[in-house]
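I need you to check the entry underneath: sequence plus fold tokens. Let me know what the token row says about the fold.

>
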Amino acid sequence: MNRRTLVLATAAVGIAVFAGGAAIYSGNTPAPAPVPGPAPSGNDTLVRMHSPVMGPVAAPVTIVEFFDPSCEACRAFYPIVKQMMAQTGPSVRLVLRYAAFHKGSDEAVRILEAARKQNRFQPVLEALLAQQPVWAAHGEPDLEKAWQAAASAGLDLDQARRDAASPAVDAVLAQDMADVRINKVEQTPTFFVNGKPLTEFSPQGLYNLVKAEIDATKPSS
């Protein structure tokens, strides 16, 4: 199965469970916060202090996802990853890194970063992903519709537009795209689990890698 076919199959599954997966996750995890330290691999180009994190801060397993808000496969994987985290409880946290490859994705990232200022990151992320087919047509994105999707999730647009244009957000975008290049990320989503790259690109492959890392943290009998 090639990547395009796999993405389409994953998208079908992801769209079918999107609302349920997001609801399960939202009810059991705190809002994203800065990550207080490097990834377990010690590779500080995978995790930065500014990176949004979902899940328990002290979780022994860290999933790093380089994602693009305009990416169909990222949208498809969202509920799958969240359901996986709901099932693994305190063992796993998710760190999000931006890989703004598509036209207009840099502005979508700015919306997300502005949402963090208002403690609305997760609701706005979910709104952007849910409405992605409306605003993120490849080659011709309609970013005003992305802003309106964010507003529907409770974002104060006047303040958010000011925050989105700040030098701090410029720095986040620049750093994440620099780390994209350093880690040779060429497509989204790209996953690392405790610093190990996901080589079997599929929901099952990600689950297997996460489970192996969870098992490795358990004391031997």
User: Anything to note?
Assistant: Residues 6 and 24 are 25 Å apart (CA to CA). Residues 1-5, 10-41 have pLDDT under 50 and may be disordered. The longest helix spans residues 3-26. The chain has nine helices and six strands.
